[in-house]
């Protein structure tokens, strides 16, 4: 039971940065005596007529509404919860690659910076469509899973403009218009679906919602929004934002 309790608390700590997320089931018991009092049954107190004796019997397991913790166990659990709450309250913030940079003259990088924190936290998934020319002056286009790239690549060089973000054959979808090379790959967030009638579709693995990237479709799908980024940096940039919801 204690092992299960610890794992549950650690799961809460790992998933949330809010210290209130760590539930303190002993908050109503400032002391061990308060905890013992909560275990004393009214009929026992009436029979014994001695509160201290009733506490001792509860601690020994002879009376009470359930198996009581020993003082050492109670104190250990209280300390464990206090430690978890402290660590949650002092958890370092996520480091953003875009911190401290100015993007007033680059709409695309500003759009990426605006989404970086939410994408890293898992609240948002974004698919980036880019059409431009590679270093060989060949026209290429493709769909990039922003979250997956953030996890597998250092984005600071992109935000500092030392590198240009372009689709790769390893991304969700890639096409070289000159060589007619075409690839598609699933990522931890999306499955790629080629539909003869609806065209290219991306299915979110978390909530199983489908994102339709057809530019002539008014609706991109449930919880999905299409954003055309007007920029001189690329031939065309479109970002599809999908709000993901945790299953309750």
The helical percent reads 25-40%
Distance between the termini: 24 Å
Number of helices: 8
Class inferred from helices and paired strands? alpha+beta
Q: Uncertain runs with pLDDT below 50, 5 residues or more? A: 1-22
Main sheet summary? 6 strands, antiparallel
Widest β-sheet, arrangement of strands? 4-3-2-1-9-8
How many beta-strand segments? 9
What number is the mean pLDDT?
81
Q: In sequence order, what are the helices and strands, one letter per element?
A: HHHHHHEEHHEEEEEEE
Alpha carbon gyration radius:
28 Å
Outline type: elongated
Tell me the β content.
Answer: 15-25%
Write up what this structure looks like:
This protein is an alpha+beta fold and 248 residues long. The protein is built from 8 helices and 9 strands. It has helices spanning 2-15, 32-39, 42-48, 51-60, 71-89, 107-121, 146-152, 156-159; strands at 124-133, 139-145, 173-176, 181-184, 190-195, 199-204, 210-212, 224-228, 236-243. The strands form 2 sheets. It has a 6-stranded antiparallel sheet with strand order 4-3-2-1-9-8. A 3-stranded antiparallel sheet has the order 5-6-7, with no helix packed on it. A hairpin with a 7-residue loop joins β8 and β9 (236-243). α2 packs across α4 (51-60). The longest helix has 19 residues, at 71-89. The two termini are 24 Å apart.
List the helices and strands and how they pair.
Blueprint: H1 2-15, H2 32-39, H3 42-48, H4 51-60, H5 71-89, H6 107-121, E1 124-133, E2 139-145, H7 146-152, H8 156-159, E3 173-176, E4 181-184, E5 190-195, E6 199-204, E7 210-212, E8 224-228, E9 236-243
Antiparallel strand pairs: 1-2, 1-9, 2-3, 3-4, 5-6, 6-7, 8-9
Helix pairs in contact: 1-5, 2-4
